[in-house]
């Protein structure tokens, strides 16, 4: 055995940090250092929605969460706020215009229209008859999917689907031929649900200036106490990636696309998003070079060493408030950061949902912005982690503000959700009767929440063994969301299987797979039905599809076990077939040769 002396420095005299730096330096750079919102990482994450459409929410391996704004609760509350606005300040125009930026699946819009129509019928008002709901999204495929799913089928003549870029919302609306008759175009309500967090932003860091760094900081104010730095990203090829396994593009071609001046060329790299990684660096900037940058610095320093500056969100909100008619409001529902959030001290991170990118809203700074722009910004007392709501506008009628606090406040939230929270607490216990009582109260309070109906249906099927009631519950949920949840159709299929109605169950699972071709539950249950009727080819095809999906790790052993059952039945059938052949040959062999009979002699 050979021993190396301690002084034999095989690292070349480098420190551990230098060794690590050298290892990181070996990464393949795709795009050089860029500001956060101009980086390939951010841009490809934003183009993801255009590429995937509604599939981003309902069929990806790690889908973008969407139920928080699409279960009916937020829509119903928004409808009551807009209705209160119209009652408090009746519109003079014969047409009432409401805009939603970034409709996603369109469920928020559909439930809003359901509730708004109901409020108008109950009060005898004609607001619904005069309403045009402008359902806007930057992704054309998202709008096409909403049409294909029939989201607005019950509200024909009231929904206008439009491709609109949030950053140029005023121009896009003005250029619309159907809206050209409105001069000036004015909106009674605007909804921004999880869309402002997808607009360009900056993560700023405040570094105390030292005498040595004063000359090299790049700041125009040499007397400033801090250096303002902004997050920059460098895009690299992830380690251990073999490009030839994923794309026919060469490394040189990928670099050329990443650094192209044409956004359409850069977006060609969207399918390769998961192959890239990033390196981070804070670099000095001039706050005056970014929109509302000086406001962000002035207010951000008082909260900590870091701040998020949602400059794109501020620009869009300013445009939207310019389009509001008297009494109009902007309603924001989004995730982000409240006062005294730990990130103000430790630094912020952006989020990746599936292959999309987003950065939460700095709501304290957003309130500061509204105050500077002489806008009202009303917050609720609802206690929900990282989910915030704001009512923004000018001269909002007091009755509308009051209604906003009532429907979006903690009391309404508690009323709507306390029993489902109790269900969650009881789910791991054996108290099925208590869980049933909790579901009853939950559904009595919120019969319009399709996610609660889905959970109740699963309870009735699995905990109470009542497939007939579970099927009725699932069908109630499907009246609210017939085309955007494979889980609902899977539940219907499982109820039908339990009732012995397997032909109908097959159709239900097929519906689930049309919504989400990678739905493991639908693939598994369909394969079981194929096995029962002896369609082994179809069963094996579905098993192969299930095992080939990214999420197959969750049900891999179930598919392997089912594959084993198919193999066993095939082997058994082959054995029986072989036995029949042997039996048939054996019968022939047992017959003796015919005996010649001499008829004359007989």
Descriptive notes:
The protein is built from 24 helices and 15 strands. With 602 residues, the protein is of the alpha/beta class. Among the domains are: 28-48 and 200-303, no CATH class; 67-199 and 312-337 and 374-408, Rossmann fold, CATH 3.40.50. Strands 2, 3, 4, 5, 10, 13, 14 and 15 form an eight-stranded mixed β-sheet that branches. Strands 1, 6, 7, 8 and 9 form a five-stranded antiparallel β-sheet that branches. Strands 11-12 form a two-stranded antiparallel ribbon.
CATH A-level architecture of the domain at 67-199 and 312-337 and 374-408: 3-Layer(aba) Sandwich
CATH class of the domain at 67-199 and 312-337 and 374-408: Alpha Beta
Summarize the biggest pleated sheet: 8 strands, mixed
Radius of gyration: 31 Å
CATH homologous superfamily (4th level) name of the domain at 67-199 and 312-337 and 374-408: Vaccinia Virus protein VP39
